[in-house]
Amino acid sequence: LRTIRNFLSDNDFSEVDTPILQPLYGGATARPFVTHHNALDRDLYLRIAPELYLKRLLIGNMEKVFELGRNFRNEGLSIKHNPEFTMLEVYQAYADYEDMLLLTENLLKEVVDKATGSLKITYQERKIDFSKFKTMTMIGSIEKIGGIKVSFDMSLKELKKIAEDNEIKVQDYWGKGHLVNAIFEKTVEHQLIQPTFITDFPTEISPLAKVSPTDPNIANVLS
Q: To the nearest whole number, what is the mean pLDDT of the chain?
């Protein structure tokens, strides 16, 4: 945690502390924990993300901000989800997701090197090399790694069939974006061992992200 803070501070980011108890929850799609403020006689929510408050600071002329803190989501337990977790959010005015990709790569390299003394580590008997990062689009990774060709030019029916053929339980409300993401999670995610950025997420699952200027189906998001 100290290395993360030092790296961001050295890159002129200001650490801030935003409210955990919020009158309206936002910044993500998740079910919140609800509590009651006795003095005000009103319900409040434990934050599910600090995003909206951090973006207010950008508007208020703080050009580089970050917060490293606890968030709470009243949802199920799995290897991907815990009801209480620590999250880092970083925002920079006048930067795009390619700038943030480079920042994230350099941050991860710094953390790994400080923690282990090397950019090459062994984890669960796998050798992982943090000196090299790959970048692939979500749809590109489905074809290259998952061996399945998908596109937003396909009909909803075609994408549903691909999902069902891969034993994905399709929800009634899913559009093309949810289907593409589900296919990615089923066929690609478990195969990503080396450091890899996945970019160009479906707009449908990225409600607060900038839409690609070349394709309205895609948002400028990376993971």
A: 96
